[in-house]
Amino acid sequence: MASQYNEPNGKPPVKWRLPEIHPEGRKYVMIALAITLLCTWLISRVLFWPLLGVTAWVALFFRDPVRVTPQGDDLIVAPADGLITMIQRMPVPRELAGENGLGEAPLVRVSIFMSVFDVHINRTPIAGTIRQVVYISGKFLNADLDKASEENERQHIVVEGKDGRRVGFTQIAGLVARRILGFVKPGDMVATGQRVGLIRFGSRVDVFLPDDVVCQVCLGQRSVAGETVLGRVGGVVPSGISQ
Questions:
Q1: Which of 39, 54, 106, 172 is deepest in the core (most CB within 10 A)?
Q2: Which residues are marked as active site?
Q3: pTM (predicted TM-score)
Q4: Left (φ > 0), alpha (ψ -120 to 50) or beta: where does 193 sit?
């Protein structure tokens, strides 16, 4: 008997759907909408469309689209949407160093800059157990500046896979960002691509790749959280990428 679907695997086609707004952002959308209505009523109707545009942008900022994460224990996926702005071997932050962290040796750091138009839900690069979550208050410099990784508000996370490999990444608040929200704590079990945090309004995420992981992205490339493969264990360096 023929399948009820035309697809060879017998599964229904996937349809596009409007991304949901993350629960953390719904109150901000309601606040923006209330301000829009009040200003229109109390001040001028001329303000309605510009303020409605601002409300739409707030809703867009907190969108939480469905992501399809590639499968494979040898893969390190991007924790953030944004632009790859740096790929360089550097010392790990002291909060991530040490025996219980990533060790003392320099590692390849991949920096992902998120503009105010990118999705700001962050996801874990690998499956495993959350070993460290270290929050540090700080300044709000432009997240694109290298010194932002040492002076800005930030949160360090270390995930240990079932094979013992550890991957660390850092959420860094930016010039506009004013709050880093974490969804996980030490001891939590996470799946690859699972939501682990949110940074409000423009920021950066740094990922530190283990030495046996080969970087799979290049400068200027755009990454998609939970989908783009940043690194591959024992992989081959793609053309045009220096490790």
A1: 172
A2: 203
A3: 0.82
A4: left
